[in-house]
Sequence to fold (620 residues):
Amino acid sequence: MDTSPNGDSLIAICTDHSLWLPATFSTLHRGGDYTWTHPKGPRSRLDYVAVDSQLAGCVQWSSCDYDIQVPNTAVDHVLVGAYVCWEEVAKSHVVRKRIDYDWQSMKTSDGHERLCNIVRNLPDVQWGTDVHTHWQILEDGLHRGLRKEFPPPKKSSRADIFSNSTWEALERRKRYRALLTSWDDTFNFLTLRIAVSSWRDGQSLVVGFKRFLLERYCLLLVRWSVLEAFRKASRLTRQSVSQDKANYINAIGEEAAIQSNSEIFSTLRRLRVGGCFRKKALTPLPLLKDDRGQNMASWEERDDRWKNHCATMEAGVETSTHKLIEQLAEGSFLRNCHQPNHSLDQVPTLSTLEGAFRRIRPRKAAGADQLRSDLCGLVPQELSLKYHSLLTKMILTYSEPVQMKGGVLVAAYKQGASDCIDNFRSLLLSSHIGKAMRRTLRQQIVPLYDKTAPPLHVSVRAGGNVMHASHAMRAFLGAAHSMKKSTGVLYLDIKSAYYRTVRQLAANLTCSDQDIARVLQFFDLEPSEMHHLMEELRQASALQESGSTAHQELMVEELLHGTWFTTPTRRTLTESTAGTRPGDGLADVLFSFVFKRVTQKVQRSLQEIFQWPDPPVCAP
Fold:
Protein backbone atom coordinates (compact mmCIF):
# COMPACT_ATOMS: atom_id res chain seq x y z
CA MET A 1 0.00 0.00 0.00
CA ASP A 2 1.32 3.45 -0.94
CA THR A 3 1.73 5.81 1.99
CA SER A 4 2.53 9.50 2.33
CA PRO A 5 4.39 11.41 5.06
CA ASN A 6 1.00 12.37 6.49
CA GLY A 7 0.07 8.72 6.85
CA ASP A 8 3.37 7.94 8.55
CA SER A 9 2.77 10.87 10.95
CA LEU A 10 -0.71 9.55 11.77
CA ILE A 11 0.69 6.10 12.54
CA ALA A 12 3.39 7.64 14.74
CA ILE A 13 0.84 9.69 16.69
CA CYS A 14 -1.35 6.65 17.28
CA THR A 15 1.66 4.64 18.44
CA ASP A 16 2.98 7.33 20.78
CA HIS A 17 -0.39 8.01 22.42
CA SER A 18 -1.82 4.43 22.41
CA LEU A 19 -4.62 5.28 19.97
CA TRP A 20 -6.41 3.09 17.46
CA LEU A 21 -8.75 3.77 14.53
CA PRO A 22 -12.11 1.93 14.65
CA ALA A 23 -12.79 2.71 10.95
CA THR A 24 -9.91 0.39 9.95
CA PHE A 25 -11.73 -2.66 11.37
CA SER A 26 -14.32 -4.20 9.06
CA THR A 27 -16.15 -5.73 12.05
CA LEU A 28 -16.87 -2.23 13.42
CA HIS A 29 -17.19 0.07 10.41
CA ARG A 30 -20.57 0.37 8.67
CA GLY A 31 -21.45 1.74 5.24
CA GLY A 32 -19.13 3.71 2.98
CA ASP A 33 -15.57 4.35 4.00
CA TYR A 34 -14.56 7.41 1.97
CA THR A 35 -14.47 10.79 3.72
CA TRP A 36 -13.33 13.14 0.94
CA THR A 37 -14.24 13.55 -2.72
CA HIS A 38 -11.88 15.11 -5.25
CA PRO A 39 -13.41 17.78 -7.54
CA LYS A 40 -12.84 15.39 -10.48
CA GLY A 41 -14.57 12.51 -8.76
CA PRO A 42 -12.00 10.21 -7.05
CA ARG A 43 -12.65 9.43 -3.38
CA SER A 44 -10.24 8.95 -0.50
CA ARG A 45 -10.20 8.17 3.19
CA LEU A 46 -8.60 11.19 4.89
CA ASP A 47 -10.50 11.59 8.18
CA TYR A 48 -10.48 9.22 11.17
CA VAL A 49 -11.75 9.06 14.73
CA ALA A 50 -8.95 8.00 17.11
CA VAL A 51 -9.88 6.26 20.37
CA ASP A 52 -7.76 5.51 23.43
CA SER A 53 -6.65 1.90 23.58
CA GLN A 54 -8.22 1.59 27.05
CA LEU A 55 -11.63 1.92 25.35
CA ALA A 56 -10.95 -0.92 22.92
CA GLY A 57 -13.96 -2.89 24.09
CA CYS A 58 -16.31 0.11 24.30
CA VAL A 59 -16.61 1.00 20.59
CA GLN A 60 -19.81 -0.42 19.08
CA TRP A 61 -19.54 0.86 15.52
CA SER A 62 -17.93 3.42 13.22
CA SER A 63 -19.50 5.10 10.18
CA CYS A 64 -19.55 8.08 7.81
CA ASP A 65 -22.62 10.33 7.63
CA TYR A 66 -23.15 11.58 4.08
CA ASP A 67 -26.37 13.48 4.92
CA ILE A 68 -24.79 16.28 6.94
CA GLN A 69 -24.96 19.55 5.00
CA VAL A 70 -22.01 21.95 4.85
CA PRO A 71 -22.04 25.38 3.14
CA ASN A 72 -19.68 24.37 0.32
CA THR A 73 -20.55 24.56 -3.36
CA ALA A 74 -18.61 21.36 -3.98
CA VAL A 75 -18.79 17.90 -2.45
CA ASP A 76 -15.92 17.88 0.05
CA HIS A 77 -15.32 16.24 3.44
CA VAL A 78 -18.04 14.26 5.19
CA LEU A 79 -18.75 13.64 8.87
CA VAL A 80 -17.05 10.66 10.54
CA GLY A 81 -18.14 9.24 13.89
CA ALA A 82 -17.80 6.38 16.33
CA TYR A 83 -20.31 5.11 18.89
CA VAL A 84 -18.66 4.56 22.27
CA CYS A 85 -20.50 3.32 25.35
CA TRP A 86 -19.49 2.05 28.78
CA GLU A 87 -20.96 1.28 32.17
CA GLU A 88 -19.78 3.00 35.34
CA VAL A 89 -19.30 0.61 38.23
CA ALA A 90 -19.22 3.26 40.97
CA LYS A 91 -22.11 5.69 41.11
CA SER A 92 -20.86 9.26 40.79
CA HIS A 93 -22.20 12.18 42.73
CA VAL A 94 -25.34 13.69 41.23
CA VAL A 95 -24.91 17.42 40.70
CA ARG A 96 -27.93 19.44 41.76
CA LYS A 97 -29.81 20.63 38.71
CA ARG A 98 -30.10 24.38 38.31
CA ILE A 99 -33.66 25.65 38.75
CA ASP A 100 -34.91 28.12 36.16
CA TYR A 101 -38.11 30.08 35.63
CA ASP A 102 -39.65 32.26 32.95
CA TRP A 103 -38.15 35.55 34.13
CA GLN A 104 -39.25 37.41 31.01
CA SER A 105 -42.93 36.65 31.66
CA MET A 106 -42.62 38.17 35.14
CA LYS A 107 -41.88 41.56 33.57
CA THR A 108 -45.23 41.72 31.77
CA SER A 109 -48.19 43.37 33.49
CA ASP A 110 -50.02 40.07 33.91
CA GLY A 111 -46.88 38.27 35.05
CA HIS A 112 -46.06 41.02 37.54
CA GLU A 113 -49.50 40.74 39.10
CA ARG A 114 -49.13 36.95 39.43
CA LEU A 115 -45.69 37.40 40.97
CA CYS A 116 -47.06 39.88 43.51
CA ASN A 117 -49.75 37.37 44.49
CA ILE A 118 -47.12 34.66 44.98
CA VAL A 119 -45.21 36.84 47.46
CA ARG A 120 -48.36 38.09 49.19
CA ASN A 121 -49.56 34.50 49.71
CA LEU A 122 -46.36 33.38 51.41
CA PRO A 123 -47.15 31.94 54.86
CA ASP A 124 -46.88 34.13 57.95
CA VAL A 125 -44.28 32.51 60.19
CA GLN A 126 -44.71 32.50 63.96
CA TRP A 127 -42.27 34.48 66.12
CA GLY A 128 -41.17 31.37 67.99
CA THR A 129 -39.82 29.75 64.83
CA ASP A 130 -36.02 29.93 64.57
CA VAL A 131 -34.55 32.12 61.83
CA HIS A 132 -33.19 29.18 59.80
CA THR A 133 -36.60 27.50 59.54
CA HIS A 134 -38.26 30.88 59.01
CA TRP A 135 -36.04 31.55 56.00
CA GLN A 136 -36.59 28.08 54.55
CA ILE A 137 -40.39 28.36 54.81
CA LEU A 138 -40.35 31.59 52.80
CA GLU A 139 -37.86 30.22 50.25
CA ASP A 140 -39.86 27.02 49.70
CA GLY A 141 -43.05 29.05 49.30
CA LEU A 142 -41.42 31.20 46.63
CA HIS A 143 -40.22 28.19 44.67
CA ARG A 144 -43.65 26.50 44.83
CA GLY A 145 -45.36 29.59 43.47
CA LEU A 146 -42.75 30.23 40.76
CA ARG A 147 -42.82 26.60 39.63
CA LYS A 148 -46.58 26.76 39.21
CA GLU A 149 -46.94 30.20 37.62
CA PHE A 150 -43.65 30.61 35.72
CA PRO A 151 -42.32 27.28 34.46
CA PRO A 152 -39.15 27.60 32.36
CA PRO A 153 -39.95 28.57 28.75
CA LYS A 154 -39.16 26.28 25.88
CA LYS A 155 -35.84 27.29 24.42
CA SER A 156 -36.14 28.62 20.90
CA SER A 157 -34.28 26.69 18.24
CA ARG A 158 -31.82 28.42 15.95
CA ALA A 159 -33.74 26.80 13.09
CA ASP A 160 -36.73 29.04 13.85
CA ILE A 161 -35.10 32.05 12.17
CA PHE A 162 -34.98 30.37 8.74
CA SER A 163 -37.81 30.71 6.22
CA ASN A 164 -39.57 27.95 4.28
CA SER A 165 -37.73 28.91 1.10
CA THR A 166 -34.42 28.26 2.87
CA TRP A 167 -35.54 24.81 3.95
CA GLU A 168 -36.76 24.05 0.42
CA ALA A 169 -33.40 25.13 -1.03
CA LEU A 170 -31.62 22.93 1.50
CA GLU A 171 -33.75 19.93 0.54
CA ARG A 172 -32.97 20.50 -3.15
CA ARG A 173 -29.27 20.61 -2.33
CA LYS A 174 -29.64 17.32 -0.43
CA ARG A 175 -31.31 15.65 -3.41
CA TYR A 176 -28.61 16.82 -5.83
CA ARG A 177 -25.90 15.58 -3.50
CA ALA A 178 -27.62 12.20 -3.26
CA LEU A 179 -27.75 12.08 -7.09
CA LEU A 180 -24.00 12.78 -7.25
CA THR A 181 -23.36 9.94 -4.80
CA SER A 182 -25.54 7.54 -6.82
CA TRP A 183 -23.87 8.72 -10.05
CA ASP A 184 -20.50 7.68 -8.65
CA ASP A 185 -21.87 4.22 -7.92
CA THR A 186 -23.45 3.99 -11.42
CA PHE A 187 -20.26 5.08 -13.17
CA ASN A 188 -18.19 2.63 -11.15
CA PHE A 189 -20.63 -0.13 -12.07
CA LEU A 190 -20.34 0.82 -15.78
CA THR A 191 -16.55 0.70 -15.56
CA LEU A 192 -16.73 -2.75 -13.96
CA ARG A 193 -19.20 -3.88 -16.67
CA ILE A 194 -16.79 -2.71 -19.42
CA ALA A 195 -13.93 -4.62 -17.81
CA VAL A 196 -15.96 -7.86 -17.44
CA SER A 197 -17.34 -7.62 -21.01
CA SER A 198 -13.86 -7.06 -22.43
CA TRP A 199 -12.51 -10.05 -20.50
CA ARG A 200 -15.44 -12.24 -21.67
CA ASP A 201 -15.07 -11.29 -25.35
CA GLY A 202 -11.28 -11.44 -25.32
CA GLN A 203 -10.92 -7.75 -26.22
CA SER A 204 -8.65 -5.08 -24.84
CA LEU A 205 -9.96 -2.43 -22.46
CA VAL A 206 -9.40 0.26 -25.11
CA VAL A 207 -11.83 -1.52 -27.43
CA GLY A 208 -14.23 -2.12 -24.55
CA PHE A 209 -14.32 1.55 -23.61
CA LYS A 210 -14.97 2.52 -27.23
CA ARG A 211 -17.96 0.12 -27.33
CA PHE A 212 -19.55 1.91 -24.34
CA LEU A 213 -18.43 5.39 -25.37
CA LEU A 214 -21.99 6.71 -25.75
CA GLU A 215 -23.07 5.45 -22.31
CA ARG A 216 -19.98 7.00 -20.69
CA TYR A 217 -20.52 10.38 -22.39
CA CYS A 218 -24.18 10.35 -21.40
CA LEU A 219 -23.26 9.65 -17.78
CA LEU A 220 -20.61 12.38 -17.81
CA LEU A 221 -23.15 14.82 -19.24
CA VAL A 222 -25.61 13.87 -16.53
CA ARG A 223 -22.93 14.36 -13.87
CA TRP A 224 -22.05 17.79 -15.25
CA SER A 225 -25.73 18.83 -15.20
CA VAL A 226 -26.31 17.52 -11.68
CA LEU A 227 -23.09 19.09 -10.42
CA GLU A 228 -24.06 22.46 -11.90
CA ALA A 229 -27.51 22.17 -10.29
CA PHE A 230 -25.86 21.23 -6.95
CA ARG A 231 -23.61 24.30 -7.08
CA LYS A 232 -26.53 26.55 -7.95
CA ALA A 233 -28.62 25.10 -5.09
CA SER A 234 -25.67 25.64 -2.72
CA ARG A 235 -25.36 29.28 -3.74
CA LEU A 236 -29.10 29.85 -3.35
CA THR A 237 -29.06 28.17 0.05
CA ARG A 238 -26.21 30.37 1.26
CA GLN A 239 -27.91 33.50 -0.03
CA SER A 240 -31.21 32.53 1.57
CA VAL A 241 -29.54 31.79 4.91
CA SER A 242 -27.74 35.15 4.80
CA GLN A 243 -30.99 36.95 4.01
CA ASP A 244 -32.83 35.20 6.86
CA LYS A 245 -30.06 36.14 9.30
CA ALA A 246 -30.16 39.74 8.11
CA ASN A 247 -33.95 39.85 8.52
CA TYR A 248 -33.63 38.39 12.02
CA ILE A 249 -31.01 40.98 13.01
CA ASN A 250 -33.10 43.82 11.55
CA ALA A 251 -36.16 42.65 13.47
CA ILE A 252 -34.22 42.63 16.73
CA GLY A 253 -32.77 46.06 15.92
CA GLU A 254 -36.24 47.48 15.33
CA GLU A 255 -37.42 45.93 18.60
CA ALA A 256 -34.46 47.37 20.54
CA ALA A 257 -34.93 50.82 18.99
CA ILE A 258 -38.16 51.39 20.93
CA GLN A 259 -36.96 49.88 24.23
CA SER A 260 -35.41 51.44 27.30
CA ASN A 261 -31.70 51.14 28.03
CA SER A 262 -32.21 48.36 30.57
CA GLU A 263 -34.19 46.26 28.08
CA ILE A 264 -31.83 46.67 25.13
CA PHE A 265 -29.14 44.37 26.53
CA SER A 266 -31.68 41.64 27.21
CA THR A 267 -32.89 41.85 23.60
CA LEU A 268 -29.35 41.84 22.17
CA ARG A 269 -28.59 38.60 24.01
CA ARG A 270 -30.65 36.84 21.34
CA LEU A 271 -27.86 37.83 18.96
CA ARG A 272 -25.30 36.27 21.34
CA VAL A 273 -23.94 39.71 22.15
CA GLY A 274 -22.56 40.45 25.62
CA GLY A 275 -19.90 39.63 28.13
CA CYS A 276 -21.38 36.22 29.01
CA PHE A 277 -20.81 34.95 25.45
CA ARG A 278 -17.24 36.32 25.36
CA LYS A 279 -16.53 34.51 28.62
CA LYS A 280 -17.93 31.29 27.22
CA ALA A 281 -15.68 31.58 24.19
CA LEU A 282 -12.54 32.25 26.24
CA THR A 283 -13.10 29.73 29.04
CA PRO A 284 -9.96 27.62 29.47
CA LEU A 285 -10.09 23.85 29.44
CA PRO A 286 -10.95 22.26 32.83
CA LEU A 287 -7.38 21.06 33.33
CA LEU A 288 -5.59 21.65 36.62
CA LYS A 289 -2.30 20.44 38.04
CA ASP A 290 -1.74 19.23 41.59
CA ASP A 291 1.10 20.27 43.89
CA ARG A 292 3.43 17.79 42.17
CA GLY A 293 2.69 19.21 38.73
CA GLN A 294 0.62 16.20 37.63
CA ASN A 295 -2.59 16.62 35.65
CA MET A 296 -5.77 15.83 37.53
CA ALA A 297 -7.73 13.16 35.71
CA SER A 298 -11.22 13.43 37.23
CA TRP A 299 -13.68 16.19 38.00
CA GLU A 300 -13.74 15.04 41.65
CA GLU A 301 -10.01 15.75 41.94
CA ARG A 302 -10.43 19.18 40.34
CA ASP A 303 -13.35 19.97 42.64
CA ASP A 304 -11.37 18.97 45.73
CA ARG A 305 -8.41 21.00 44.50
CA TRP A 306 -10.58 24.11 44.14
CA LYS A 307 -12.21 23.54 47.55
CA ASN A 308 -8.84 23.09 49.30
CA HIS A 309 -7.43 26.16 47.56
CA CYS A 310 -10.31 28.34 48.80
CA ALA A 311 -10.19 26.75 52.25
CA THR A 312 -6.50 27.61 52.53
CA MET A 313 -7.19 31.26 51.73
CA GLU A 314 -10.17 31.62 54.09
CA ALA A 315 -8.95 29.34 56.91
CA GLY A 316 -11.69 26.88 56.04
CA VAL A 317 -12.59 23.68 57.85
CA GLU A 318 -14.97 21.01 56.61
CA THR A 319 -18.25 20.95 58.49
CA SER A 320 -21.91 19.93 58.19
CA THR A 321 -25.16 21.86 58.28
CA HIS A 322 -26.15 20.39 61.65
CA LYS A 323 -22.79 21.26 63.23
CA LEU A 324 -22.89 24.77 61.76
CA ILE A 325 -26.37 25.47 63.15
CA GLU A 326 -25.26 24.27 66.60
CA GLN A 327 -22.31 26.69 66.53
CA LEU A 328 -24.59 29.53 65.44
CA ALA A 329 -27.05 28.82 68.26
CA GLU A 330 -24.22 28.87 70.82
CA GLY A 331 -22.84 32.14 69.47
CA SER A 332 -26.28 33.74 69.45
CA PHE A 333 -26.82 32.70 73.07
CA LEU A 334 -23.50 34.26 74.17
CA ARG A 335 -24.27 37.54 72.42
CA ASN A 336 -27.76 37.72 73.95
CA CYS A 337 -26.23 37.13 77.39
CA HIS A 338 -23.77 39.96 76.78
CA GLN A 339 -26.50 42.37 75.62
CA PRO A 340 -29.91 41.15 76.82
CA ASN A 341 -31.73 44.48 76.39
CA HIS A 342 -33.03 45.42 72.95
CA SER A 343 -35.05 48.17 71.33
CA LEU A 344 -37.08 48.29 68.16
CA ASP A 345 -35.11 51.40 67.24
CA GLN A 346 -32.23 49.04 66.45
CA VAL A 347 -34.26 47.38 63.65
CA PRO A 348 -34.03 48.93 60.15
CA THR A 349 -37.33 50.36 58.99
CA LEU A 350 -39.59 48.80 56.39
CA SER A 351 -38.74 51.52 53.87
CA THR A 352 -35.01 50.88 54.41
CA LEU A 353 -35.47 47.20 53.61
CA GLU A 354 -37.57 48.02 50.54
CA GLY A 355 -34.88 50.42 49.34
CA ALA A 356 -32.26 47.68 49.78
CA PHE A 357 -34.33 45.34 47.59
CA ARG A 358 -34.66 48.03 44.94
CA ARG A 359 -30.88 48.53 44.81
CA ILE A 360 -30.20 44.91 43.85
CA ARG A 361 -29.02 44.98 40.25
CA PRO A 362 -31.00 42.81 37.78
CA ARG A 363 -29.82 39.83 35.71
CA LYS A 364 -27.33 38.57 38.31
CA ALA A 365 -26.68 34.86 38.79
CA ALA A 366 -28.59 33.10 41.56
CA GLY A 367 -26.96 31.92 44.75
CA ALA A 368 -27.58 28.72 46.66
CA ASP A 369 -31.30 29.56 46.92
CA GLN A 370 -31.62 29.43 43.09
CA LEU A 371 -33.44 32.82 42.98
CA ARG A 372 -32.12 35.37 40.50
CA SER A 373 -31.62 39.02 41.38
CA ASP A 374 -34.52 40.07 39.09
CA LEU A 375 -36.96 38.95 41.78
CA CYS A 376 -35.83 41.70 44.19
CA GLY A 377 -36.38 44.49 41.67
CA LEU A 378 -39.74 43.22 40.44
CA VAL A 379 -41.55 43.00 43.80
CA PRO A 380 -39.49 44.98 46.35
CA GLN A 381 -42.50 46.22 48.33
CA GLU A 382 -44.07 42.78 48.69
CA LEU A 383 -40.75 41.14 49.61
CA SER A 384 -40.00 43.76 52.26
CA LEU A 385 -43.40 43.17 53.87
CA LYS A 386 -42.74 39.42 54.11
CA TYR A 387 -39.07 39.54 55.11
CA HIS A 388 -39.17 42.44 57.59
CA SER A 389 -40.37 40.16 60.38
CA LEU A 390 -37.40 37.87 59.71
CA LEU A 391 -35.05 40.88 59.75
CA THR A 392 -36.55 42.01 63.07
CA LYS A 393 -36.06 38.56 64.57
CA MET A 394 -32.51 38.47 63.24
CA ILE A 395 -31.58 41.85 64.79
CA LEU A 396 -33.21 41.30 68.18
CA THR A 397 -31.83 37.78 68.69
CA TYR A 398 -28.36 38.18 67.12
CA SER A 399 -29.16 35.23 64.90
CA GLU A 400 -28.66 35.33 61.14
CA PRO A 401 -30.18 32.54 58.98
CA VAL A 402 -27.52 30.06 57.95
CA GLN A 403 -28.78 30.32 54.36
CA MET A 404 -27.57 33.95 54.27
CA LYS A 405 -24.10 33.20 55.58
CA GLY A 406 -22.57 31.62 52.50
CA GLY A 407 -22.94 30.56 48.92
CA VAL A 408 -21.34 28.82 46.00
CA LEU A 409 -17.72 29.68 45.18
CA VAL A 410 -17.12 29.57 41.43
CA ALA A 411 -13.74 29.93 39.76
CA ALA A 412 -13.07 32.96 37.55
CA TYR A 413 -10.04 32.78 35.27
CA LYS A 414 -7.73 35.81 35.56
CA GLN A 415 -4.61 35.39 33.42
CA GLY A 416 -1.55 33.19 33.07
CA ALA A 417 -1.42 29.42 32.75
CA SER A 418 -4.95 28.02 32.90
CA ASP A 419 -3.79 24.82 34.60
CA CYS A 420 -2.46 26.70 37.66
CA ILE A 421 -4.98 27.14 40.47
CA ASP A 422 -3.38 30.44 41.55
CA ASN A 423 -4.51 32.05 38.28
CA PHE A 424 -8.17 31.76 39.28
CA ARG A 425 -10.07 33.95 41.72
CA SER A 426 -13.19 32.93 43.58
CA LEU A 427 -16.58 34.57 43.14
CA LEU A 428 -19.20 34.04 45.84
CA LEU A 429 -22.74 33.47 44.52
CA SER A 430 -24.93 34.15 47.54
CA SER A 431 -28.62 34.86 48.07
CA HIS A 432 -29.73 38.23 46.70
CA ILE A 433 -32.50 38.45 49.29
CA GLY A 434 -29.84 37.93 51.96
CA LYS A 435 -27.70 40.65 50.37
CA ALA A 436 -30.60 43.10 50.61
CA MET A 437 -31.12 42.30 54.29
CA ARG A 438 -27.38 42.73 54.98
CA ARG A 439 -27.40 46.06 53.13
CA THR A 440 -29.74 47.47 55.79
CA LEU A 441 -27.04 46.70 58.39
CA ARG A 442 -24.35 48.16 56.15
CA GLN A 443 -26.23 51.46 56.13
CA GLN A 444 -26.01 51.56 59.95
CA ILE A 445 -22.23 51.18 60.19
CA VAL A 446 -21.03 53.12 57.12
CA PRO A 447 -21.66 56.50 58.87
CA LEU A 448 -19.23 55.38 61.61
CA TYR A 449 -16.57 54.88 58.97
CA ASP A 450 -17.29 58.22 57.31
CA LYS A 451 -16.77 60.07 60.58
CA THR A 452 -13.45 58.45 61.55
CA ALA A 453 -11.70 57.51 58.29
CA PRO A 454 -9.07 59.79 56.72
CA PRO A 455 -10.37 62.02 53.93
CA LEU A 456 -8.68 60.04 51.16
CA HIS A 457 -10.17 56.69 52.23
CA VAL A 458 -12.98 57.05 49.71
CA SER A 459 -13.77 53.56 48.44
CA VAL A 460 -16.62 52.87 50.90
CA ARG A 461 -18.08 56.35 51.05
CA ALA A 462 -21.17 57.08 48.98
CA GLY A 463 -20.06 58.15 45.53
CA GLY A 464 -16.48 57.19 46.33
CA ASN A 465 -14.20 55.96 43.61
CA VAL A 466 -10.62 54.80 43.39
CA MET A 467 -10.04 57.62 40.90
CA HIS A 468 -10.46 60.14 43.73
CA ALA A 469 -7.34 58.82 45.45
CA SER A 470 -5.57 58.62 42.10
CA HIS A 471 -6.30 62.28 41.30
CA ALA A 472 -5.23 63.33 44.80
CA MET A 473 -1.90 61.52 44.40
CA ARG A 474 -1.30 63.07 40.97
CA ALA A 475 -2.11 66.52 42.37
CA PHE A 476 0.33 65.97 45.24
CA LEU A 477 3.09 64.84 42.88
CA GLY A 478 2.42 67.81 40.62
CA ALA A 479 2.61 70.25 43.54
CA ALA A 480 5.85 68.68 44.80
CA HIS A 481 7.35 68.90 41.31
CA SER A 482 6.44 72.58 40.99
CA MET A 483 8.11 73.25 44.37
CA LYS A 484 11.12 71.13 43.38
CA LYS A 485 10.60 68.76 46.32
CA SER A 486 11.73 65.12 46.25
CA THR A 487 8.79 62.75 46.59
CA GLY A 488 8.16 59.03 46.47
CA VAL A 489 5.11 56.81 46.19
CA LEU A 490 4.93 53.35 47.73
CA TYR A 491 2.50 51.02 45.94
CA LEU A 492 1.21 48.06 47.96
CA ASP A 493 -0.58 45.19 46.27
CA ILE A 494 -1.75 43.10 49.21
CA LYS A 495 -2.31 39.63 47.79
CA SER A 496 -5.59 38.00 48.86
CA ALA A 497 -6.18 40.82 51.38
CA TYR A 498 -9.93 40.28 51.61
CA TYR A 499 -9.49 36.54 52.11
CA ARG A 500 -6.78 36.76 54.80
CA THR A 501 -8.27 39.42 57.07
CA VAL A 502 -8.49 38.46 60.75
CA ARG A 503 -12.17 39.11 61.46
CA GLN A 504 -11.70 39.61 65.19
CA LEU A 505 -9.87 42.87 64.43
CA ALA A 506 -13.22 44.28 63.29
CA ALA A 507 -15.42 43.01 66.15
CA ASN A 508 -14.45 40.91 69.20
CA LEU A 509 -16.78 41.60 72.13
CA THR A 510 -17.55 37.91 72.82
CA CYS A 511 -14.49 36.41 71.15
CA SER A 512 -12.49 34.02 73.35
CA ASP A 513 -8.81 33.10 73.20
CA GLN A 514 -9.83 29.70 71.83
CA ASP A 515 -11.64 31.35 68.92
CA ILE A 516 -8.58 33.47 68.15
CA ALA A 517 -6.22 30.51 68.38
CA ARG A 518 -8.48 28.52 66.06
CA VAL A 519 -8.09 31.18 63.38
CA LEU A 520 -4.41 31.90 63.86
CA GLN A 521 -3.43 28.25 63.41
CA PHE A 522 -4.11 28.70 59.70
CA PHE A 523 -1.67 31.61 59.34
CA ASP A 524 2.01 30.96 58.88
CA LEU A 525 3.35 33.39 61.50
CA GLU A 526 6.49 33.49 63.58
CA PRO A 527 6.03 33.13 67.38
CA SER A 528 6.90 36.81 67.92
CA GLU A 529 4.42 37.90 65.25
CA MET A 530 1.77 35.66 66.77
CA HIS A 531 2.33 37.30 70.17
CA HIS A 532 1.98 40.81 68.73
CA LEU A 533 -1.21 39.84 66.91
CA MET A 534 -2.69 38.33 70.09
CA GLU A 535 -1.93 41.56 71.95
CA GLU A 536 -3.58 43.54 69.17
CA LEU A 537 -6.70 41.38 69.33
CA ARG A 538 -7.04 41.91 73.08
CA GLN A 539 -7.40 45.66 72.52
CA ALA A 540 -10.49 47.51 71.37
CA SER A 541 -11.77 46.43 67.98
CA ALA A 542 -11.87 48.64 64.89
CA LEU A 543 -15.61 49.15 65.34
CA GLN A 544 -15.19 50.17 68.98
CA GLU A 545 -12.49 52.68 68.02
CA SER A 546 -14.95 54.14 65.46
CA GLY A 547 -17.62 54.69 68.10
CA SER A 548 -19.98 51.79 67.43
CA THR A 549 -22.52 50.69 70.01
CA ALA A 550 -22.32 47.30 71.67
CA HIS A 551 -25.36 46.18 69.69
CA GLN A 552 -23.77 47.09 66.37
CA GLU A 553 -20.55 45.26 67.18
CA LEU A 554 -22.40 42.16 68.38
CA MET A 555 -24.45 42.15 65.18
CA VAL A 556 -21.29 42.37 63.06
CA GLU A 557 -19.86 39.49 65.09
CA GLU A 558 -22.92 37.44 64.22
CA LEU A 559 -22.59 38.28 60.52
CA LEU A 560 -18.96 37.12 60.54
CA HIS A 561 -19.62 33.97 62.56
CA GLY A 562 -20.41 30.64 60.92
CA THR A 563 -19.88 31.72 57.31
CA TRP A 564 -19.53 28.90 54.80
CA PHE A 565 -19.02 28.06 51.16
CA THR A 566 -19.53 25.14 48.87
CA THR A 567 -18.33 24.31 45.37
CA PRO A 568 -20.66 24.08 42.34
CA THR A 569 -20.96 20.31 42.84
CA ARG A 570 -22.38 20.81 46.37
CA ARG A 571 -20.52 17.72 47.64
CA THR A 572 -19.07 19.23 50.82
CA LEU A 573 -19.66 22.19 53.12
CA THR A 574 -16.71 24.29 54.34
CA GLU A 575 -16.79 26.80 57.19
CA SER A 576 -14.57 29.86 56.62
CA THR A 577 -13.08 31.41 59.74
CA ALA A 578 -11.08 34.26 58.17
CA GLY A 579 -11.56 36.91 55.50
CA THR A 580 -14.37 39.34 54.75
CA ARG A 581 -15.99 37.27 52.00
CA PRO A 582 -15.47 38.98 48.60
CA GLY A 583 -18.83 39.28 46.90
CA ASP A 584 -20.67 39.99 50.14
CA GLY A 585 -22.26 43.39 50.73
CA LEU A 586 -20.29 44.00 53.94
CA ALA A 587 -16.90 42.80 52.69
CA ASP A 588 -15.50 46.17 51.65
CA VAL A 589 -16.85 47.98 54.73
CA LEU A 590 -15.38 45.57 57.28
CA PHE A 591 -12.08 45.37 55.42
CA SER A 592 -11.93 49.18 55.34
CA PHE A 593 -12.47 49.35 59.12
CA VAL A 594 -9.55 46.97 59.68
CA PHE A 595 -7.33 48.59 57.06
CA LYS A 596 -8.04 52.06 58.49
CA ARG A 597 -6.87 50.85 61.89
CA VAL A 598 -3.70 49.35 60.44
CA THR A 599 -2.80 52.44 58.40
CA GLN A 600 -3.38 54.73 61.39
CA LYS A 601 -1.00 52.65 63.51
CA VAL A 602 1.61 52.71 60.74
CA GLN A 603 1.25 56.48 60.40
CA ARG A 604 1.65 57.01 64.17
CA SER A 605 4.77 54.82 64.20
CA LEU A 606 6.29 56.80 61.33
CA GLN A 607 5.53 60.07 63.09
CA GLU A 608 7.24 58.86 66.27
CA ILE A 609 10.32 57.64 64.40
CA PHE A 610 10.81 60.62 62.07
CA GLN A 611 9.20 63.27 64.28
CA TRP A 612 6.73 64.19 61.56
CA PRO A 613 4.05 66.75 62.41
CA ASP A 614 0.42 65.75 62.36
CA PRO A 615 -1.06 66.04 58.87
CA PRO A 616 -3.47 68.94 58.36
CA VAL A 617 -7.13 68.13 58.75
CA CYS A 618 -9.14 68.71 55.60
CA ALA A 619 -12.79 68.19 54.81
CA PRO A 620 -13.59 64.87 53.15
In short: The CA atoms of residues 1 and 213 lie 32 Å apart.
